[in-house]
Design brief:
2 helices, alpha+beta, single chain, two-stranded parallel ribbon
Length: about 80
């Protein structure tokens, strides 16, 4: 929700810059999965700054797919 502003070439370049750590997106809010509806409402009403994240498989922020503390980390998606 809310993705806009780039063509395929620009998106590929952004992905490359993200991969190399040259761009770090701003995450302004992180919500548990139970609050996804409210988070989507805030995005729809433009009541946020930066990116809004939803914790789908992690119990708290910082345990992404590559976090060594998370069971199954690094497993193919």
């Amino acid at each position: 929700m809310g993705s806009r502003g780039a063509n395929m070439r620009e998106m590929a370049e952004c992905a490359r810059l993200f991969e190399y750590g040259l761009i770090k997106p701003t995450v302004s809010e992180v919500h548990p999965l139970a609050e996804a509806g409210e988070a989507a409402r805030r995005v729809r009403l433009d009541q946020h700054t930066g990116k809004v994240g939803i914790l789908c498989l992690a119990p708290r922020p910082g345990l992404g797919i590559t976090a060594p503390k998370r069971p199954g980390a690094g497993a193919p998606r």
